[in-house]
Amino acid sequence: MFTDQTLPSSDSTHSTEDEEEEERDITEQKRVDFIRLLPPEVVLLILSNLSTNELFGCLDVSLGWKDRIENYPSLWRQVTIGDEDYELIDKLEWIGRHVRSYTIYQACQEILDGSASILVSGCMDNLTSLEKLNISLPTSEISHLEYTLTTTHHLTHLNWSSGSTVPVEQVYEIFDACPNLIFFKVSYCDFSDLSAIRSKCPKHLRVLGLNDEKITVGIDWDVSADGAEPGLYDLTTTCHDNTSWETFQQVLVKDENTLRNLSLFCSPSRDPTLLFSTFQGRHMRLSEGHVGWRYYSTIQIDAVVMNHPLSIFYEFSRNYVDQSFPWLIDGIKMDRIQTKKIKINRCGNIGPHLFSLLDFHRLQELCIDGCQVDTLDEFIPRLGSSISSIAFRNIVRLKDSTVALLATVPNLKRVELFSCEFLSDQGLRMLLDGCPRLKELDVRHCKSVTQAALDSIKETLDQRNRTE
């Protein structure tokens, strides 16, 4: 069987090749080598948006790019090596002299071994440039890290999240090897005497974190020892027995004039009197340790101590609310602490403990979220004249008659009601009519409240605010 096929002529073949060559020429003309043509400051601005991995990819484009990019020191000040970046280890010798901050994050063993090698005997062997070392290894560790650090006399920041417990003797070796440290955090450390560790800290240490489980790759290095009063600014520690609690209190007294931030893992069985009577900082985070998210409860306190603000965040297990709630609330009942705001979140049944809040005569704002409260009808009429704002969120059985009682609070200006499904239009109207001082009523996700009622309330409040 014969098929008639038209074969391409030699002229058409040459024409196609010419067109392809012309297209390649046009493409080449459109390419612009911005590294070579743009001003250095503009090139630097563009490249500074790239990751470490992407920057190393740029080095492979051409010799011109490699020579130019290698000699932008600021691009290599902070280098992060992750689990998939093991092929970059060999390339670090190109830019090791510029590195100031080196991060190893969830890395494989090849990266750990390679990093240890370059730190000790490779491109960063003298370590005169390296200042910040961040190691985050949830399931592994660098063996003999203290040996790796023996020549890091210029190291100022060390953040070490290890996959195993670090003996306190190894911490001492690091302190001896790194006398210029101002920042030191380790995820797991086996110790009982905090005062002994404190006595061996480098002279200029400002941040000390022991058993700091919240270490992440995006750590805040912003701390300096320049012109500062000697002492710790930030302390994270654990008190698991009487000895550790006593030695913690010794350190608290020693650094009371400088300590600004405190994170403490402790049991509510400890007497908190010295803690709350001594701490003069700005932020205090207290925790009972490991708390499953299903039973996670928090209390947040905003207060004023010696004319400066103090925020307290306390997290604990809902199963121990009868011990934890009074531990904090009774602990801060001191003349030096003027409590202004209390937020209680997911604490289970707090009905029996609610009346202890009446002792805060300067309390201005109260928020109760996701709690079971069966004593509100007795509690609300006893609130004092200092209260100006009340928020009830996710209070399932909040009744109209209970909301109406808020009108008895003498100087109430603001009310927030969120996701209270038993609340109806009638309760809101009783509150609004009975509380002429009310300036703001925020109602959201309350299924039994109609849009007509919300529109009416808004109109009433707008008119009330215009006349004042």
Plain-language structure description:
A 16-stranded mixed sheet has the order 1-2-3-4-6-8-9-10-11-13-12-14-15-16-17-18. A two-stranded parallel sheet has the order 5-7. Helix 10 packs across helix 11. Helices cover 32% and strands 22% of the residues. The termini are far apart. It is built from 17 helices and 18 strands. The radius of gyration is 32 Å and the shape is extended. The longest helix is centred in the N-terminal third of the chain and has 21 residues. The protein is α/β, with parallel strands linked by helices and 468 residues long.
Using the CA coordinates, give the radius of gyration: 32 Å
Distance between the termini: 102 Å
User: What would you call the structural class?
Assistant: alpha/beta
Strand content: 15-25%
User: How would you sum up the global shape?
Assistant: extended
Quick one: biggest sheet? 16 strands, mixed
Strand order of the largest sheet: 1-2-3-4-6-8-9-10-11-13-12-14-15-16-17-18
Q: How many E-type strands?
A: 18
Stretches where pLDDT falls below 50 for ≥5 residues?
1-7, 120-127
Helix % is 25-40%
Number of helices: 17
Mean pLDDT: 81
Question: How would you summarize this macromolecular structure in one to three sentences?
Answer:
This protein is α/β, with parallel strands linked by helices and 468 residues long. 32% of the residues lie in helices and 22% in strands.
Summarize the SSE layout with pairings.
Blueprint: H1 10-30, H2 34-37, H3 40-47, H4 52-59, H5 63-70, E1 78-81, H6 92-95, E2 101-105, H7 109-120, E3 132-136, H8 145-148, E4 157-161, E5 166-167, H9 168-177, E6 183-186, E7 189-190, H10 194-200, E8 207-210, E9 234-238, H11 242-254, E10 261-265, H12 273-278, E11 283-287, E12 296-305, E13 308-317, H13 321-331, E14 337-349, E15 365-372, H14 376-379, E16 389-393, H15 400-404, E17 414-418, H16 425-434, E18 440-444, H17 451-467
Parallel strand pairs: 1-2, 2-3, 3-4, 4-6, 5-7, 6-8, 8-9, 9-10, 10-11, 11-13, 14-15, 15-16, 16-17, 17-18
Antiparallel strand pairs: 12-13, 12-14
Helix pairs in contact: 10-11
